[in-house]
Design goal:
Number of domains: 1
Largest sheet: 4 strands, antiparallel
Number of strands: 4
Helix content: 25-40%
Structural class: alpha+beta
Distance between the termini: 30 Å
Shape: globular
Amino acid sequence: MSQDWKICVQPAEREPFVFRATFVLRRAGCDEGVLDARYLYGDGDLAVFLEDLGAGSSEIWGLLERLQGQKTAEILVDVTDEAMEVLARHPIAE
């Protein structure tokens, strides 16, 4: 069973990373709280990461376009159980 997740993308404010992607669990349309954050190097890294989570290419392109005009953007993703297992195996970048 997949969960509804909101991925909030913000500036990393930490070299050499460009983005910080924060996971927010959503249930019944409200935010449950931040679960995890990942630091990413740039547009390509972010796109591959979101694709691995199950985001569609049109949603990813839309997010990247929004990030060109503003510092933060959000995308809703149904993360599969398999993707959650992969994420759990990789430590958070500190």
